[in-house]
Amino acid sequence: MFKVVRISILLFVLFFVAVSTWLTQARSTDWNNSLWVKVYPINGDNSATAAEYIQGLSVGDFEGIESFIEREAGRYANRISRPVRIELGQPVSAQPPALGDKPNALSVMLWSLKMRWWAGSVSDDQDRIEPDVRIFVRYHAPQEDIALENSVGLQKGMVGVVNGYASRRYRGANHVIIAHEFLHTLGATDKYDPIDGQPVDPDGLAEPDREPLYPQRYAEIMGGRIALAANDAVIPKSLKYAVIGPLTAREIKLSD
Predict the structure, then answer these.
(1) What is the DSSP letter of 211?
(2) pLDDT, tens digit, for every residue of 87-123?
(3) CA–CA separation, 179 vs 140, rounded Å?
(4) Is-contact 87 39, C-beta < 8 A?
């Protein structure tokens, strides 16, 4: 009897978590109210450069992301004022859990659970009210000979981890990555080739009907890059050169 009760309680908890997650995800893309996105800076390489940059951050430094979402929502006839409201959280000292060099289905699932637990545990002290989406930005001192780790965005848990550079010069490019991972938390999928990073035609291109097709002038945000040729693409310098394409808009319920 005790075993049956224990299993029943566990199933109830799992059901409650599943329903709660579904309701949160559904509300996040009904676009009836502003989504509250909180950005938490992290010194990703423990450098003095990143520490100084983080100290100088203000919420106004992220206005470009708000403007981008509002602009693109307007293109799909959604007229809500400030569909996204960004708040700047206090710096977080703990680093997020690492995925590992050779991930498989099980390790990815366990890592996802660890990431969601970590996100809640490191932000609870400063979040009396839980934001809709948490984005942790790991800032690194700019070094041309060092490639940053991939950024991630999880729909389950609505949390993202972004790796960016601690420099005003890279602020626009950082915004592109933040917006990309934020849209992942709403259900948007990648639209680039995972092997070479090239945007996939047509959904990964901002102007799939352009004649001639290349070079493109803008990046589809989930394609991630401006396609200059069939085998060449660059990350846009800012969200001024990015758009939300039709498929991405449908995925995040901006359009039918």
Answers:
(1) S
(2) 999 999 999 998 776 777 888 888 888 999 999 999 9
(3) 18
(4) yes
Tell me how far apart the 2 most distant CA atoms of the chain are, in Å: 71
Say which residues have a Cβ less than 8 Å from residue 162's Cβ, sequence separation at least 6.
135, 136, 137, 138, 151, 174, 177, 178, 181
Tokens 């972004």 belong to which residue? 162
Report which residue type is found at 70.
Answer: E
Domains and CATH numbers, the chain: 38-187 (3.40.390), 191-256 (no CATH)
C-beta separation of 127 from 40 below 8 A = no
Judged against a pLDDT cut of 70, whether residue 170 lies above it is answered with yes
Beta carbons of 236 and 173 less than 8 angstroms apart: yes
Structure tokens at 120: 């809640």
Which of 172, 142, 138 is closest to 152 using CA atoms? 138
- Coil, strand, or helix at residue 99? coil
Alpha carbons 222 and 247: distance in angstroms, whole number: 10
**CB pairs under 8 A, 24+ apart, for 24-33?**
24/132, 24/158, 25/155, 25/158, 25/186, 25/187, 28/132, 28/133, 28/158, 28/185, 28/186, 29/186, 29/187, 29/252, 29/253, 30/253, 31/73, 31/78, 31/80, 31/83, 31/253, 31/254, 32/80, 33/80
**b or e along 34-48 (b: 16 or more beta carbons within 10 Å of the residue's beta carbon)?**
bbebbbbbbbbbebe
Which residue's structure tokens are 């009904």? 30
CA nearest neighbour of 254 among 13, 73, 43: 73
Structure tokens of 144? 């041309």
**Which residues have a Cβ under 8 Å from the Cβ of 163 and sit 6 or more positions away?**
44, 137, 138, 140, 148, 149, 150, 151, 177
Per-residue confidence (pLDDT) for residue 169, from 0 to 100: 95
CB 96 within 8 A of CB 161: yes
